[in-house]
Amino acid sequence: MNIRRILALAGVFLILLLYGASLVLGIIGSPKALDLLLAALFCTMVVPAMIYGCGVLLKNSGRSGKDSR
Protein backbone atom coordinates (compact mmCIF):
# COMPACT_ATOMS: atom_id res chain seq x y z
CA MET A 1 0.00 0.00 0.00
CA ASN A 2 1.53 3.32 -0.99
CA ILE A 3 1.91 6.36 1.24
CA ARG A 4 -0.89 8.32 -0.44
CA ARG A 5 -3.47 5.65 0.44
CA ILE A 6 -2.22 5.50 4.00
CA LEU A 7 -2.54 9.28 4.33
CA ALA A 8 -6.04 9.20 2.84
CA LEU A 9 -7.18 6.44 5.20
CA ALA A 10 -5.71 8.29 8.18
CA GLY A 11 -7.57 11.45 7.16
CA VAL A 12 -10.87 9.62 6.76
CA PHE A 13 -10.39 7.93 10.14
CA LEU A 14 -9.64 11.27 11.81
CA ILE A 15 -12.71 12.96 10.34
CA LEU A 16 -15.00 10.04 11.24
CA LEU A 17 -13.61 10.00 14.77
CA LEU A 18 -14.32 13.71 15.19
CA TYR A 19 -17.89 13.37 13.89
CA GLY A 20 -18.49 10.35 16.11
CA ALA A 21 -17.20 12.17 19.16
CA SER A 22 -19.35 15.22 18.43
CA LEU A 23 -22.40 12.97 17.99
CA VAL A 24 -21.79 11.20 21.30
CA LEU A 25 -21.20 14.47 23.14
CA GLY A 26 -24.32 15.93 21.52
CA ILE A 27 -26.41 13.01 22.74
CA ILE A 28 -24.95 13.26 26.23
CA GLY A 29 -25.63 17.00 26.29
CA SER A 30 -22.11 18.26 26.84
CA PRO A 31 -21.53 22.00 26.38
CA LYS A 32 -18.42 21.20 24.32
CA ALA A 33 -20.46 19.38 21.64
CA LEU A 34 -20.84 22.48 19.46
CA ASP A 35 -17.13 23.26 19.68
CA LEU A 36 -16.26 19.71 18.65
CA LEU A 37 -18.74 19.84 15.77
CA LEU A 38 -17.15 23.05 14.52
CA ALA A 39 -13.71 21.42 14.82
CA ALA A 40 -14.98 18.46 12.79
CA LEU A 41 -16.35 20.78 10.10
CA PHE A 42 -13.03 22.63 10.00
CA CYS A 43 -11.10 19.36 9.69
CA THR A 44 -13.44 18.24 6.91
CA MET A 45 -12.04 21.07 4.82
CA VAL A 46 -8.45 21.23 6.07
CA VAL A 47 -7.45 17.55 6.34
CA PRO A 48 -8.11 16.67 2.66
CA ALA A 49 -6.24 19.80 1.57
CA MET A 50 -3.26 18.85 3.74
CA ILE A 51 -3.31 15.27 2.44
CA TYR A 52 -3.37 16.61 -1.11
CA GLY A 53 -0.46 18.93 -0.33
CA CYS A 54 1.56 16.08 1.18
CA GLY A 55 0.81 13.98 -1.89
CA VAL A 56 2.03 16.73 -4.20
CA LEU A 57 5.20 17.16 -2.15
CA LEU A 58 5.85 13.42 -2.14
CA LYS A 59 5.28 13.22 -5.88
CA ASN A 60 7.61 16.14 -6.59
CA SER A 61 10.33 14.96 -4.21
CA GLY A 62 10.47 11.60 -6.00
CA ARG A 63 10.96 13.27 -9.38
CA SER A 64 13.66 15.66 -8.20
CA GLY A 65 15.89 12.76 -7.23
CA LYS A 66 15.71 11.29 -10.73
CA ASP A 67 16.25 14.63 -12.51
CA SER A 68 19.31 15.60 -10.47
CA ARG A 69 21.61 13.10 -12.25
Please characterize this protein's 3D structure.
The protein has one domain. It has 2 helices and no strands. The protein has helices spanning 3-28, 33-67. α1 (3-28) runs antiparallel to α2 (33-67).
Largest sheet: none
- Tell me the helix content: over 70%
Order of helices and strands: HH
- Stretches where pLDDT falls below 50 for ≥5 residues? none
Count of helical stretches: 2
**Rg, nearest Å:** 17 Å
Q: In angstroms, what separates the terminal alpha carbons? A: 28 Å
Report the structural category: mainly alpha
User: What is the strand content?
Assistant: under 5%
Number of strands: 0
The number of domains: 1
Mean pLDDT: 80
General form: elongated
Oligomer: single chain
What would a concise description of this structure say?
The chain has two helices and no strands. It has 69 residues and is mostly helical. The chain is elongated and about 50 Å long.
Task: Please name the defining characteristics of this protein.
single chain; 69 residues; mainly alpha; 0% strand; elongated
Lay out the secondary structure.
Layout: H1 3-28, H2 33-67
Helix pairs in contact: 1-2
